[in-house]
Structures are given as C-alpha cells and as structure tokens.
Amino acid sequence: MNETLWGTYGRLIAALLGLAFVVLSGLPVRALEAIPVPLDAGAVDLTDSVDLYLRYGDRIQISTAPDAEGFVRRIEVRSREPGRSASWAVFALRNDSDEQIDRLLVAPYFRMVGSGIIRPDLGDTRIAAITPSQGFRPDRADSHDSDSYLITLDPGAVVTYVVELEGNTLPQLRLWQPDTYKENVNSFTLYQGMVIGIAGLLALFLTVLFVVKGTIIFPAAAAFAWAVLAYLSIDFGFWNKIFDVAVRGDQVFRAGAEAMLSATLLIFLTSYLSLMRWHVRLIYVAGLWLVTLFGVAGIAVFDAPLAAGIARLSLGLTGVIGLALILFLAFRGFDRAILLIPTWALLLAWLLAAGMTATGRLSNDLVAPALAGGLVVLVLLVGFTVMQHAFAGGAIGQGTLSDFHRKALALIGAGDLVWDWEVPRDRVFVSPELEEKLGLKPGTLEGSARKWFDVLHAGDRDRFRASLDAVVEQRRGRIAQDFRLRASDGHYYWYRMRARPILGDDGEAVRLVGTLVDVTEIKNAEERLLHDAVHDNLTGLPNRELFLDRLEAGILRSRVGDDPRPTVFVVDIDRFRQVNDGFGIAVGDSILLTMARRLQRHLKPSDTLARLAGDQFGIILVSERDPKRIAAFAEAVRRTIRTPITFGDREVFLTACVGISVYDGSEKRNEDLLEDAEIAMYHAKRFGPDRVEAFKPVMRTMGGDRLALESDLRRALEREEIKLVFQPIMRLEDKRIAGFEALVRWDHPRHGRLNPQEFIEIAEESGLIVEIGLFVMERTARQLGAWQRAMGTTLPIFASVNVSSRQILRHDLINDIRAVLARNEVVPGTLKLEVTESLVMENPEYAAQVLERVRELGAGLSLDDFGTGYSSLSYLQRFPFDTIKVDRSFVRQNGSGTRPVILRSIVSLAHDLGMEVVAEGAETDEDAIELYALGCEYAQGYLFGEPMSADECRHLLARQSAMMRH
C-alpha cells in the first residue's frame, strides 16, 4: 500500500516538475485532447484536430495527452536534419476498446481541394517522420500518391504522435481501416482507369479524324484531348507509374500539363471560331498569349507553383473571354459560335466548380473525381461539336458513329492487334494478322489458352500462366508484359501485351481483353546495346569491364564456397605494332581474330577469355587449381601464340609475354588481381620476348614503372609537363631558315626530360596519343602564327607536325584540323602534317580521301620517311603531298664515300610530281653542298641546329632578319 502511494506521489511530483520546466522554458504548454478511434469507423478525419507548429525549429517539446490514469509526460523530438527549422504536427489517439487497433495514417501528396489559385499547392511529400510517445515508430506503407503509415494502438492506450513535416502544409490527414482504405483506392482506381481509357480513346479518335478530315479544327481539338489525357494521367498518378517520377518532379509535370491545357483550349477556341476572319489583331493577341503559355510550361521546371498559378488564371480568363466572343458572334448569326454554346456552358460550369474546389469551398471527396469526369465529358462535347460542323450532311455528322466504331477506329489508328480471352469457355481470339506474321495456319492461336504454350518461349510460359491466373482470381488489375512467340520457321518475335479483365454481373472475370504490339526491333536493339557495352567489337570477346565483373564473381564464389580460386593471365603480343605497320591494320585485325579463336580452344566453359586492350588478352582460369596444371596451361598458351599464322603466301611468326596472378584468398579486389597480372606481364617484357612470369610482390617496385609512367602521362597535359621543341629546316638556296619541325618532349617530375621513344609507344597503346597530337598541333599553329606575324608574309616560314596512325584513322581528324586553323591565323599551306609512308599504305583508298580533305582545309602535307617501307612509287601520284621528306638512311654516305644512287632518283621523281624535297640527317657542310647539287630544296639536321625552344627559335629568326637587313 505504501509503495503504491509513494508511486502515485512520485508521478505527481514528476508531472509538476515537467510543467514547471515547460513554463520556465517558454515552450508550448497547451494540453492535447486525445481523439478516440472507434472500432467500427472506416475513416477518421484528423485534419482539424492536429496542432501545427510551423517553422518551429529543429526540436520540439510536447506535453502528451493524459493517459488512462491522467498522467501527462513531456517528450522531446528532434528533426532528422540538425539545424533545420522544421514544421511539426501533433495529435493524440485513444483506444477505448479492449482490442488492438491497426489503422493507416494517410496524408495525400496532392489535393485539388484547397490547393489555391495563385501559387497553388501542387503536391509534395507531407510527412518526413513520425515519433510516438510510446511504442515503436509506425511502419511506412507503400503508396505512390500519399504518405501512409501503419499505426497500432493497444487496448486502452493513449498515444501522442509528433509528426515532422516535409514542408509547411498538411492539407489532409485521415486514419483509415486498412481494408476500407484498400476498397476506397480500388474503387477510385477503377473509375480513374475508365476515365483515362475514355479520354485516351477520344484523343485517338480525334487524331484519326484529323488524318481523315485535314481541317485545322481537328488538330486543335485533338491537341486539347491529348492535353486533357496528359492532365488526367498526372492527376490520377498513372504518369508516376509509367515513368517513375519523383514527387517533386510531379509538380513540374502537373504545372506543365495545366499550362498545356490552357494553351490547347485557347488554340481550339481561336481555330474553331476562325478569329482571323474578324480582326487581325485578335490573332496577334492570341499568338502572344500562346507564346506566354508555352513559356510558362518552361517556367514550370524552375518554379512550378508560379507556372501553375499563371495557367489557372489563363484558363479562367480564356473561359470568360471565350464566352464574350461566342455570344457576340452568335448574335451576329455565326453558326460555329451557336454550336459551341453548349460546350462552353459546360466549360464555364467546370471552371466554376474547379475554382470553388481550389479555394476550399467545395471539399467533398467526390469533387476531384467528378471534375476529372467533367473534363472527359467536355472533350466528348468538343468532339461532337467539331464533327457536327465538319461532317454536316454525312453519316458521321448525323451521329450514326457508335462507341464501338470509335474504339475500332482508335485501334486501327494505333495499329495494335486485338487479344480476347473468354474465360468461362476458355476460348482465345486474336487478330488474324498475328498468325499471318508468325506464318501459322489460320485459327492456330484460337481456342484454349493452353494452345499459346506451344508457341510461347519456354522461359515465358510460367510467367504468362501466372499473370492470367492472378488477374482472373483477383478479378482486378491488368497485364502488361513482354513475351516471345515462335514463328513457323523457328524464329522468335517479341510481343507486348496490355490487357485487363472484364467482370460479369456476379463479379467474376468473364473476359480478358487487350492488345498485342510487336516490339521485336526494340528488344533486339536493347540486346545489341547491352552486348556491345560489355563485349569487344572486333572479336566479340568480353571487354575489360565484363572481365572484371566475372573476376569479381569468381573471387566471391571462392570466398563463400568450395569453388577454385581464380587465376588471371594477361597475354600481350610482342611487337604487334610492327605487324600493323608492315601488313596493315586489316591484317592485324585478322591476326587478332585468329589468336582469339586459338586461345578459346584451351578454355573450358567455366573459364573466361577477354580482350583487354589492342593486342592484349585476359584469361580467368577457374577450371584448374593444381599449380603444375596452371603452369602447363600457361605454356600451352605461349606455344599457341608461337604457332605461325599463314597469310596469303606468307607466314607471320608472333610471340607473347604472359603475366600470371593467383588469388590467394585475401581481401584483394578484382582490379588489384588484374593489376598484379599486368605487372608480371610487363616484368616479362623487360626480359622478353616470349616469356611467362608469375606475379611476386617484389615486382611492384621492379615492374610497375610502365604502369606508373602511363598513369603520369594521363596527367602530364593537365600539369603542362608536355613541351614542344623545334628543329630548324634550312632552305639550301639562300641558307635561310624555311621552317621548323615540331618535336614533343616530356618534362617528367622524377625522370627528367623524356624523348618520344620513351613514352610515345605507351601513348599509342593507351590512346593518349590523340590528345597529345591535338595539343602539339594547336601549340604549333599558335607559335607559327606568331612567327609569321613577326617575320612578315614574304616567303613565310612553315612548321611540320607528325600525325600518328590513331589520329589519321579518327573521323574527328578533319574537324580537329578545321578548328585549329580557325583559331589560329596562319598562311595556307604552311602548317604541314607529316604522315609516314607505312601509315598511308595501310589503306591507300581511305588515306587518299582523308588527305585530300585535309589539303582542302588549307594544311600542307609532307610524306615522312619516304623509301623506308613499301615500294610505293606507283601510289605516290595518288596522294596530294606537296613535300617529300627523305629518310636519313638515304642521305648518309655509304662505305665507298658516296651517297646512295637512289637519292638522286627520289629527288628527280619528286620534282616530276611537283613536290619539294626535305633531306634529313645533314650533319656537315659537305652534306649541305651535295644535297643542294642533287636538287634538294631543304635540309634538316644538327648542322643547322638542334631542337630548341620557341623563344630560342624567335631569337634565331630575329638574328637572321637583322643579318639580312645589313
């Protein structure tokens, strides 16, 4: 007894202390009144019983409603985001029964009722979080159009709920019995589906009529119908289901739909009344109005409430002004205006009801659905009005077109196939076009639904059967699925079915009616895109991304199960670039295909072969776990690559370096395992060719230099480490500088200045050569323009830039050259592109076309290293070169002290073709004299200067100019 008395005193003292704290702290002290929740009530409206604290702060302290013993507690709730000035809603619920009560607390995202006209509330997430004074937090229920939470009240419990609001408004808050709420949603869903279906059919029908009767009023009426359909789809939430639009994004679409609704109504009014006949200024006003409304649709992206407010005002203004125009023209005897009076009267009634709803004067739950139905009726009247005028005297004008005919016309316009299943008799009817498309006999697909299983793909049968059974058993819902049907020739076609049940008088599904659409091309395109995204275009093998994905899967399986640990092989063909240079890229591609087929023969179905880079393959080996057998596999791969490949009457002998890394069961990632194999491969290349190396941790410091160099090269351009130097080219006739050849150097932060031989190969393999080449071309053109402006245009100097194979094979080369020449003012023909002989001979026809376009852009062309590759004298006249650059091997004296005889022939041939000659490798005065005697116009070599910076070139040119003046 004493313990009970002391407990009562304790609670009383605690309550008094809590009340004193609240009074002293200045927090709200108004007591809550608990709302009883009857057992038999389907829904309880809490909207007017909720205490709102707008922008109250990031925390709130509330006195709970008195419990059954009259005890009041204080609870404090903090917002999810500290520092956020949140708005709060507080209410209390009481369960007076002796049973547990489960209810759904529902706050809809959007309500037409009370949304407003100026900057209306277009819907938003209402509830951010709910905190009860006792028990667990309510669970959130799935809903696409409201914040729904499942609330449980124990017998005799009084629970206070503190709701953190997402915004500052709570248009409606109701407590529903779950079954009642479900029935309510289903009933509205059925109604909404019927409204959407009718609106869609009307839009299709008016569109078909526009095709049949091409007067301007039909596209105007059809546009209004489509705008209504779009508005209803957004209002009913169908848009969100199709496109998975977020709640905030729904505001943009809703505002845009209202703007389009107003714009299309204005277009219909203007076109139907033919206002251009009465006054030209009306057209200007209507045109400006329309432009404004289309601009409002764009404003919706940035400020949806503002756009919706303008659209609603415009809609009301259109109704009022339209009424004045209709009455004015009707009194003048204009028949179109007279025919439009009933339709416009309905529009004004709809606008009045919508305005009263938006301002909160009409608040019944049936108002919003009724307004949606009214819009469809309005579209129907618009269609009747248009047809009555346009088809006066005809069958359609006399009203003989039935609803059945409208739907038939709509299906014909859409081009869909009809699919109808009579459930009680188990008979399927399908449009004969489907059987004709599949090459089946007429009637093959009619009859029992089981007949479809014979032509359905095995992977789609269970899903198709389950969809039919579910819709029939549940007597609601719809089917929207894709499946494959087998044609008579064995090929499969993809079809998309959209169907829904038709219920009989007893509530059972008596028919399942829908449409079929051929989506084979769409599916094939999706499959091609997916395949191309993860496979190599040349060999069809998995690419690097898919290789890493399968390696990750192999690592995970080995961690959680008894699967073998994967072994990674990286196979890099030695000196494959020489194959491309010597035989051409087409032959190189054929060799890669051959290699891929040979390597694939050594693999089992569980293993993976991928193409990681140009001449680099990757293998994931999971079929072998014994180290000896893994080593034997590596040796077999090496022997396979060494096997000669016959090409025409020639044999190509290749070797490769192979790097191996074995997963050791650690937490190593798939990228790390692949990197280990690459490091082992590069280590093998250092001592190769034709070597196999297994990864060892010490190799990271020994063989990782190449990877590190490639990584540094990727950032070299950003860090401005790539520099240009220029080697003078001398005009032998007057001993003056005629131009420069641009050469690239890399000032590495650790290794110092690197020559092209040390990094160009890496740039070629990694694809960075394209960026480097464009950088060199841009900087050279800029520097050449500066030199020409300083030296004048008489005998302007030129500059040569080397072009790699990757650059000339790119389709963007022409655009790059055009952009460089447009940004830099240089004398036409003075920016010369140097192309090697082996490069143009890989594909002479393509090279001739590309070089001709380059020449037309105003760039010069120089054939570099002439005579070192093919005997291409017969092809030389086909290319638009203006300069031939003779390799230094033809300039050096031979063992007898004379220069090669072929040099004189090359110079003579070039002159006969109208080309100038630049001789490389001039080292002495004797070289210069003899080259001039042979007829060479230009010479290049250390005799005239080593590669120098742009500033040194400028000083050299300035000294030459000063000497010439004196």
From TrEMBL:
The keyword Magnesium does not apply. The chain crosses the membrane at residues 190-212, 217-239, 259-275, 282-302, 308-331, 338-360, 366-386. The lineage of its organism: Bacteria, Pseudomonadati, Pseudomonadota, Alphaproteobacteria, Hyphomicrobiales. CDD domains: EAL, GGDEF, PAS. InterPro entries: Biofilm_reg_signaling (IPR052155), EAL_dom (IPR001633), EAL_sf (IPR035919), GGDEF_dom (IPR000160), Nucleotide_cyclase (IPR029787), PAC (IPR001610), PAS (IPR000014), PAS-assoc_C (IPR000700). Residues 564-697 form the GGDEF domain. Keywords: Membrane, Transmembrane, Transmembrane helix. SMART domains: EAL, GGDEF, PAC. Gene3D superfamilies: 3.30.70.270, EAL domain (3.20.20.450), PAS domain (3.30.450.20). It comes from Microbaculum marinisediminis. The keyword Transmembrane helix applies. This is Sensor domain-containing phosphodiesterase. Coiled coil: none annotated. Residues 479-531 form the PAC domain. Residues 706-961 form the EAL domain. It comes from the Bacteria.
